[in-house]
Amino acid sequence: MIQLRRLFGKNSRQGNWWAPLVLIIGTTAVLIATTVDFATPQNASNLLAQAMPLIIVAIGQMIVIVLAGMDLSVGSVMSMTTAILALDGSPFVLIPLVFLAAIAVGLTNGIAIVKLNVHPIIATLSMQFIVIGIAQLLRPVAGGSVPEIVVTMVTGRIFGMPTTILWGIAVIAIAWKVLHGSRFGLHLFAIGGGVASGQTDAAHNYGLPDQRIVIKAYVLSALFAALAGVFIAGRIASGDPSVGSQFALDSITAVAIGGTQLSGGVGGLHGTILGAILMALLANGMNLANLSAFLQGAIKGGILLLVIALQSRKRMGL
Amino acid sequence: MNPTLNRALRIPPAYFVFVVLLATLWVTKPQLMNANVLGIFVRQVAPLGILVLGQLLVMRVRSIDLSGAGVLLLINYLFASGMLGDTPIVLMLLLSVCIGCVIGAFNGYLVAKRRVSAVIATLAITVILSGLVQFLASGKPPGNMPALMNEAYKLKWGLLPAPVLVWVFLTALMAVFLSRFVFGRFIMAVGENPTASHFAGVPVARTVMIAHIIAGLFAALAAIVQSASVAVGSLRLGLEMPIDAVAATILGGVIFGRGDGGVWGPFFGVLCFALLFVVMTSFGVPEPGKQIARGLIILLAAVFYGLSTKNS
Hints:
heterodimer, A: 318 residues, mainly alpha, ABC transporter involved in vitamin B12 uptake, BtuC, two-stranded antiparallel ribbon, 14 helices, 2 strands, B: mainly alpha, 4 strands, 74% helix
């Protein structure tokens, strides 16, 4: 009970998570009322498959945003993951390679930020260019084929149930354990809360290994991005060096809609998941309404701008 | 730390990199070392150089402006699509400048008044503008640029191409503006310490806002020069330009809140980019390699400054 109150109660650190829930219910109602194709099993399974990569990246993004950081390199890690998976080779080499590459990216981000004193946005922005460059070197244009096992893992069925649902359960369980069932999760919010209240050293002065936690957070963010990349690779069954380009901003939008504060310290798993579902729902609705893909991009940008303009911050600038 | 070493760390890396690149080019491709060829290389980066003038202003007040890509795309489309019919070119130029200022003012409002994260806000503006332009053009490349602009771009004054002349003139103007006007002092004060500036009576929010408006203005000017440099419009202008502007600015010794490099540091940062891409092309580095180099430059320059602020 206490645990539940801490997660869903009025004074929780989870942020304003009910707003996306209300919006999801509203959007669903509107879509059911106005379009014929929405409430079909086919569309529901499409929607789930569309939402899943965004849910996975957004969880990783949320972990660094709680630390008042930001990871703009997640999209490029996803692209690189699909490019690596489409290389020639055994899946038992390629899949570990994907996660090793992600760990390398996360470690570089974390070390640049913590040890070399680089602003998180600059560090991950430059990392984005480096990783996209690597992805393009591995696979200059979309193509190639992903190991069969990855495709089955994503699009197959187990006991008649789409594996997408299992992915969702597994990812949420991992994220729950990391955020709410580990010391790391608690420390994350402690450091973020300190930064948000202007006392950057607070957590450090309490004896928390703050540098190690920040580095771990960026590694986790890259790992979640790689997981999302594996999922997308399974869906498109090929490598594409530009497949992740939208995801950096989309994940930030999903996290921000879910009530996580970009100034750090406040945020949560369920808000982020709801935010990602809302984004997928809106994309699905715009597709059903036959809106131009270019206009959809502009509208998503507008939503991002609106959501972050509604968050109040003390600091000005970056 | 040793004061001499400290002073050496404060010299922008752009100067060293420029000398190294020039030497590399001199040794490996001596046939390129004449005023005509170099003039063409430098002319190519004139739009970037003009964009950097705005970028260095906002970066000195601890903000950033990535909306340049959107402004560039919009103004490029405006000239190439012929959607304004037979409007005189002067009016179109004026309109472009107005668009730049309005977008700059909107950025400024978001960053200074609403206190939105500058990266996200200006990135979102670019996403919105490029989405709208691509929607208007329905994904197809727009038509030809006005011939008059292309002719103006090719003019020369002695050995100096006209765009380079404009760039140098604007840079000198900015140098005077920053060192001789009260606003220049405000920019410096806000960058050094926003809280102290606020209590010293500096209008912090207004300074940030005006910096963004001027950045928008320079983005529009850069867009005009860029549009003049190509014969046909393009929808493929990506985020590279504002990112290169950030990289050149950092290379030139200006980084969030600190302005060691003044205006001429970033100027040489842009010249580094002019030579860098020539050197990479002449060594046969493919496009992804350039992408990686772009990222590495920003990261290394930021690490250089991160370490030098940590020590002091």
